[in-house]
TrEMBL record:
It comes from Romboutsia weinsteinii. Gene3D superfamilies: Winged helix-like DNA-binding domain superfamily/Winged helix DNA-binding domain. The lineage of its organism: Bacteria, Bacillati, Bacillota, Clostridia, Peptostreptococcales. Pfam families: DUF4364. This is DUF4364 family protein.
Length: 178
């Protein structure tokens, strides 16, 4: 299929860009790995090398949220994919599309509840708590707390009880108070 290894590398890079574009959400390294390995597109070590190269080329960017790193498609990556998309065989894109359709909920389930905090000063931390459904924020709450210990505790409690807490907040907000 490939005349040389540089064509193969370009092809595999396009596959990664295609997956991130098609799934319409940012993914962790383990989520990308899951898609690549379960669709048998390439091996783990090649994937890790290509992710690094895509970052260096500024086709992907990485950010941290809730102590997890997420890969995101950049505008440059999207434009490159759009330009070279025709080089991906239709049977391959179809296989990826089918995998994403049948497994997107499993991939999404891992990223529904998010919590993080940042230090503002010695005794001020901003905690961000979110619940996301279909890539839309159901709740996005920022709290100002006085210690890192409180911030960590709030983040852990949110991760373990977000659905209950969200329901309680909604109930309190819509309750008719006489």
């Amino acid at each position: 299929m490939f005349e040389n290894s540089s064509q193969e590398l370009a092809y595999h890079k396009l596959l990664i860009l295609y997956i991130l574009d098609k799934i319409k959400m940012d993914l962790t390294n383990s989520q990308i790995t899951q898609v690549i390995l379960e669709t048998e597109m390439m091996n783990y070590f090649s994937l890790q090398q290509l992710l690094s190269q895509l970052m260096e080329s500024k086709f992907l960017t990485i950010y941290k949220d809730s102590n997890r790193e997420y890969y995101s498609l950049t505008q440059k990556g999207l434009e490159t994919l759009e330009y070279f998309l025709s080089r991906l065989p239709e049977n391959i894109t179809k296989r990826i599309d089918e995998y994403i359709t049948s497994n997107k909920e499993n991939l999404l389930a891992d990223t529904q509840v998010k919590s993080s905090f940042v230090k503002q000063s010695n005794n001020e931390f901003i905690v961000n708590l979110r619940v996301i459904e279909n890539q839309a924020n159901l709740i996005d709450l920022n709290l100002n707390v006085s210690s890192e210990k409180q911030a960590k505790l709030i983040c852990n409690n949110w991760k373990n009880n977000a659905s209950y807490m969200y329901a309680e907040v909604i109930d309190l907000l819509i309750r008719d108070i006489d």
